[in-house]
Design goal:
Residues 24-43 are annotated as: Disordered. By secondary structure, the protein is an alpha+beta fold. It has helices at 3-12, 16-25, 44-50, 175-178, 182-191, and strands spanning 52-62, 66-82, 87-94, 100-110, 117-124, 130-136, 143-149, 157-163.
């Protein structure tokens, strides 16, 4: 029982004894989490739909420099694997000039009830680690995301952006980030 429930009961009932009786006799709803997916498992086809290159645009507020508006880069998911709990991906990000931003690990899942997808991504291999939260309609389609830095000093930042969805037009920007990753190479060859 949460502290909030206990104190609410104390406010609702004139005596501590009646509050305790109400708490004892009131069934507590199940705290079981919803299933990881509306289906029994995610599929390789869903995982492969995430693989590829995306163009992103975002605006961010940086503690050290203020607001930066509508800048862009490329999001490269090089490989993704499906499990019963979600789709796990590895990739990287690059600027339009080809400079590596970070390496990424991500996980995506269908929301409870289906119809929407969400994802979480962490960056590593960078001096300014960050995490992004994604919301999208289906694997590989455009997504909105919000990012926050993990450093809490002068380099902290927040941002909000939009992904294009996996697109062949951006494929060349992700070659360096994905290297010879088989899933990415398969996707890349399908673009030609």
């Amino acid at each position: 029982m949460s502290r909030r429930t206990f104190f609410a009961a104390l406010l609702l009932f004139p005596s501590t004894a009646s509050a305790h009786r109400w708490l004892r006799d009131t069934p507590i709803p199940s705290q079981d989490p919803p299933p990881a997916s509306s289906s029994s498992s995610y599929t390789p086809a869903q995982a492969n739909a995430f693989v590829g290159a995306q163009h992103w645009y975002e605006s961010g507020y940086y503690a050290s420099s203020g607001l930066s508006s509508h800048y862009d880069g490329y999001f490269c998911l090089c490989s993704c694997q499906a499990t019963a709990e979600g789709i796990f991906c590895k990739g990287g990000g690059v600027t339009p000039s080809g400079e590596k931003v970070a390496d990424f690990l991500g996980v995506f899942s269908e929301t409870y009830g289906g119809g929407r997808w969400e994802g979480d991504l962490v960056a590593y291999g960078t001096e300014t680690p960050f995490a992004d939260k994604f919301s999208l309609n289906a694997p590989g389609l455009g997504a909105n995301y919000t990012g926050v830095s993990q450093s809490l000093q002068e380099e902290s930042f927040v941002w909000r952006g939009r992904m294009s969805g996996v697109e062949c037009e951006s494929k060349d920007h992700c070659v360096q980030a994905c290297g010879n990753e088989p899933s990415f190479k398969d996707w890349f060859s399908e673009c030609d």
